Amino acid sequence: MKRICLFLLIGLMASLPTSAQSKKAVQSFLSYTTYNIPGGTPFIENALAFDCSSVVYKEFEPGKFKATVEVQTIFKQGDKICNFSKVALDSPVVTDTTHLTGSFLDQQRFGLENGEYHMEISIKDLNNTSQTPFVADQTVVVQYPDGQPAVSDLLLVDSYSSAAQPSNFTKNGYNLIPRVYSFYLANNHELTFYAELYNSDKYFKDKGQYLVNYYIESYESSVKMKDFSFNKRMNVGEVNVLLNTLDISQLPTGNYYLVVEMRDRSNNLLASNSTFFQRYNPKAETDLADLGSAPVSGTFIPENLSMDSLRESLRCLDPRCSEAERDYMYNLVKTDDAKTMRQFLYTFWANRQPLDPKGAWEEYWAQVQRVNASYSTKVKKGYMSDRGYVYLKYGTPDKICEEPFEPGAYPYEIWHFYQVANQRNKHFVFVSKDMVTNDYELIHSDVVGEVNNPRWQMVIYSRFYGPDYSNDIIDQEAPLIETYGTRAGDLYRNPR
């Protein structure tokens, strides 16, 4: 799986005074992918993009300017350092620094044995002496069982060409320029990806072919998108390369996974991998004709279900809806069309659990009742709250750290998930600023696609420092001075 980390994104930088500009951190974006070398050591590739407008350009020759960024990368298991790098990266040379746009890119490769690692990256603008390094960390997993079929992480590609000269961007004879930002605008009509498939020759002892499926599915519902599912046959081999371009001009706005599967000759799944991406495409319309057309007589949807119950049954689906389903559902509940509501409710679950849509609905409805009991307020049902939404979308957290009375802090909760879909070691941070109701607001998560605020600790402790404190120091992510009992950062890193 390709994972994306937004290190820092500060809006409206151009409007900041010069003194604030000189202290701002480098805006940088990371994507990383893992690969196997059958018979050798697997490796991880880090692609970093640096926003040109967030770094200082210095003149090194008359009329020529460049920025230099220092990147330190450490991979640890406990206290053991497993790999390490510290490099200074130069931007492309420019002759005009008054209108800096775009970004510059670097990619580094690190050999790592199978296992789970703590990756820490420190980034510093070497031309900005007033700046302290920005540090971010991430849990990464390298897992390629020896001799077993496997699919590498999927690399989203901006462009590629045959490699006349090898470089940091070369793999299997191609120069692959990674697409670090996994967001496709309306004018992006194509999605290109690269993947490696391993050890089919170990699984199939005889020579022949095997099946590779690749498709786009909804992030929320895991339902395959119509007209975006493909397959091809590949000859067995130690390493096979899949480099393809998909036409996404008709892919509607939404959150998606790109999935690649290895299957045997009986269509049994051998291995798979996926990567998340987002699409903005207001001109493309989703085909929703089948959402309200299924016959529901004799199904689990009662004929005499009241209009209020129907509307409630549809509204509570929000956390599991795709973007298109959500829009359709909210428009539908504004009507009095009970028949179409019942058809939508049945089709929604039949698409997800065709063998047992009734069981899927009953299990989900029981979860709705649990969040209503735990998170409802006088004016809001529990499933409409942020905590209820996260619970219904991602399931029960593995750990919940509740801090209703920490000195100097608004009441907050930190939820920790060992696994969210195909993401590991993820967190959600909720805070209650009114301190009276049971309504906690989600202010930060490191789950792809959710609200991300690296300065979430400043929000929690603004009760002690004042309501404007989180905006006073542009790049400060945690309080400069910890008050008695301050522990939000520690609970986030070490949930218990």
List the helices and strands and how they pair.
Layout: E1 3-6, H1 18-23, E2 28-35, E3 43-51, E4 58-61, E5 64-66, E6 68-77, E7 80-90, E8 103-111, E9 115-125, E10 134-142, E11 150-151, E12 155-162, E13 170-171, E14 174-178, E15 183-184, E16 190-198, H2 200-203, E17 209-218, E18 224-235, E19 239-247, E20 254-263, E21 269-279, H3 307-315, H4 323-332, H5 338-352, H6 357-375, H7 386-394, E22 399-403, E23 412-420, E24 423-431, E25 441-445, H8 456-460, H9 462-465, H10 469-472, H11 488-493
Parallel strand pairs: 15-21
Antiparallel strand pairs: 1-2, 2-3, 3-8, 4-5, 6-7, 6-9, 9-10, 11-16, 12-14, 12-16, 13-14, 16-19, 17-18, 17-20, 20-21, 22-23, 23-24, 24-25
Radius of gyration: 25 Å
Low-pLDDT stretches are 1-22, 469-475
Number of helices: 11
Given this structure, which CATH class of the largest domain is correct?
Mainly Beta
Measure the end-to-end span.
28 Å
Helix vs. strand class: alpha+beta
Based on the structure given, which CATH architecture of the largest domain is correct? Sandwich
Q: On the 0-100 scale, what is the average pLDDT?
A: 86
Structural shape: globular
